Amino acid sequence: MKSRTDVAIVGAGPYGLSLAAHLRARGVKYRIFGEPMRFWLNMPIGINLKSLAFATNIYVPKYGHSFPHWCRQHGLEDFEPCTMQSFSAYGLEMQKRFVPDVEEVLVTNVSLRPDGFELALSSGEHLHSRKVVVCTGLSGLAQIPDVLRELQSDRMRHTFDISDYSEFRNKTVAVIGAGSSAIEAGALVQEAGGSSEVFVRGQEAIFHGRTPRERPLWERIKNPMTVLGAGRNSWILQQLPLIVYRLPRERRTRFVKRHFGPASPWWIKDRVLGKVPIHVRHEVVEAGNAGQRVQLKLRDGEGSLRNVEVDFVIAGTGYDANVTRLKFLTPEILDRIDCIEGAPTLSADFESSVPGLHFTGPLSFMCFGPLFRFVTGAEVTSRRLARHLS
Ligand SMILES: Cc1cc2nc3c(=O)[nH]c(=O)nc-3n(C[C@H](O)[C@H](O)[C@H](O)COP(=O)(O)OP(=O)(O)OC[C@H]3O[C@@H](n4cnc5c(N)ncnc54)[C@H](O)[C@@H]3O)c2cc1C
Question: Domain boundary residue among 276, 292, 315?
């Protein structure tokens, strides 16, 4: 006989763990699948959180377990910059304490049944669940431009798939992209003893400024500190987390797409400027294997073409929150999910047009806005969803 549960949580990162901790406290019958904190454990050494510590927590329904608390207990920086390794260690500690029942298996298939869903697990088990919550973060959403797709995987990978840059020692590497992943990859290749150049399609590579921890009163009033950094708009988003959701659909889509373009954190600037060549207004128009190397044809802002030959190409080309990229959902389910630009349309309780199927994190960002692209969105998500699923 198949085992049954009320709620199946797919993914054990900050969103999945926060939700499980809330469901557990409410006595809801759930099961949670995935390797805890895998995304954060895979981060290369030398990379810090982009968010402030107080905005990066596993949100458990008990006071005194925030990330800054944990950092202070361990004698670590509790504001910024905080390392990815410290956040992973904190997350694993919270998991062991508040969600000890995580099952370290993958969900390989989710299909519709008359009274819910059937899940297939990598362990071979099949189970029935009344509700499913997808908390898989950016897994499966890495975007590689068509022009790079033909390159062999031993010569091109997305930043999502690289955690150890020592393989680039003595290699020449072209990094494509303008966001923080691309700029960080440029620095990490150089620091590992390789030679990197970054090619940016847009006009510039933008770096965020550092927000001082102590600021004069007038500055704190003008630009209050929030989970998204200092700023009045961010303050509104923090105080009214569902405000974006309430906007008319077209306005909301425009706002979400405009907010937070590609930009790198302040702490990477000194590791890049004057060390890693950044070529702006350069677009890759052709890419091909050239023996053991890769040949790229690039068009610059004036329309001139230029060939570059390198050992390896790193695609720092971002993510596409398109639900059809989730391979564990059957075509029957995908057909029934209403979408906005590929991302599922959700109710205020994160439920998709398939009753009982919920999405969180990056897959809820088109509906709920910038807060939900980051770990900080897990606070509102886990509270609302736990109430809805109870
Ligand atoms: C380079 C980079 C740096 C970032 N830095 C920050 C930052 O500093 N602060 C911040 O707030 N946000 C940051 N983000 C954004 C962050 O990734 C998202 O906020 C993320 O959504 C947060 O956690 P999550 O729980 O949704 O996903 P994750 O933490 O990625 O967890 C998803 C989990 O699902 C599991 N999983 C995937 N598929 C399956 C499956 N089929 N079955 C079972 N389990 C599965 C994975 O193994 C993983 O453990 C960063 C993103 C990138 C790309």
Answer: 315
